[in-house]
Amino acid sequence: MFGPDKCGSTNKVHFIIKHKNPKTGEYVEHHLKFPPSVPSDKLSHVYTAILKPSNEVVILVDGEEKKKGNILSADDFEPSLIPDKTIADPDDKKPEDWDEREKIPDPNAVKPEDWDEDAPMEIEDEEAEKPEGWLDDEPEEIDDPDASKPEDWDDDEDGEWEAPKIDNPKCEAAPGCGEWKKPMKSNPAYKGKWHAPLIENPSYKGIWKPQQIPNPAYFELEKPDFEPVAAIGIEIWTMQDGILFDNILITSDEKEAASYRETAWKPKFEVEKEKQKAEEEAAATPDVLSGIQKKVFDLLYKIADIPFLEAYKLKIFDVIEMGEKQPNLTIGILVSVVVVFLSIFYRIIFGGKKPAAKVTTATTNAAAAATSDNQGTSEEKEDEKEDAAAPRRRNVRRDT
């Protein structure tokens, strides 16, 4: 098994090999110790495992060496590919009289007669006296005199309001406030529970270990005998989408792999990196732009509330709401509103009963693309009665 694994606390590029023990015929998994970690971004990455004739293993991430080891080394693989020569005898049992205690309580020790196990660790300091100026009648904390009950506080729902507490300012200049109590001090008579002192165990035999016997699974090997690769499978467990695999290459030519990495992965990686950089730079812009757009739309709402524009409020609201839904069309929306205002002023100055200007037909191409069904062309034919109708309540109104 070879490849990235990032799940929970696991973060590593696996390299696991299966090898058949020539003595037992059993297949054993050998895991690379201390494998490299997986890149934390969402860019495409290429993972390379190089297995050399010298039994050396090299792990590359994006063409950069991250780990090197030797298949036959117990320091690099766990369990070791070559088993230990000896193992603990599974049939060997510790004798019942085996004593592993290095030290034992002195069986001849006796607790002293004056040893009081019930004496407390601390007692009151009888010699202590209350400091002069101690304010017995002053509490350490008082209600904040500057605090007031909030206007929206509901006693039925929020309960009885209580002012927050602050430190009593009178206590700052005094040695203390409230009821004075004698402080505690260490009890000189305290000794705790009595235990017999430890002495060397005359029966100590050391820590017992089973005897070692020759390992029946042991073998010597200079070069592992791996079976040939017959197929490639992808094992994946994930809770997110957008994970893709491609360009899997098995070759005996290291230079071919490096060339393929540069041509199949590197160009895509560079494009993704530039795109990510552009997105990160653009991510900061909307915060500033959205604040400006909000002010613009708030101003337009106030303008639409002017009394002599009452008959056209419905159409102005429609244009503003279209801009709120698609902020990138703000400039086109502004042009549309200007056209509406000019049309209204024209009617006020020259009179007549011309229909109100169609908002969407006077916008730029960007504003016209704001709605897919391009509704409203029939509105150009609405009569004056429809134009003068009372405006409906807007569906979208930003309160913030």
From TrEMBL:
Alphabetically ordered keywords of this record: Chaperone, Endoplasmic reticulum, Membrane, Transmembrane, Transmembrane helix
Membrane protein topology class: Single-pass membrane protein
A GO CC term attached to the entry: endoplasmic reticulum membrane
Ranges of biased composition (kind: Basic residues): 391-400
Feature: compositional bias, Acidic residues: 114-145, 152-161
Region (Disordered): 71-179, 364-400
Family to which the UniProt record says this protein belongs: Belongs to the calreticulin family.
Entry protein name: Calnexin
Native organism taxonomy: Eukaryota, Viridiplantae, Streptophyta, Embryophyta, Tracheophyta
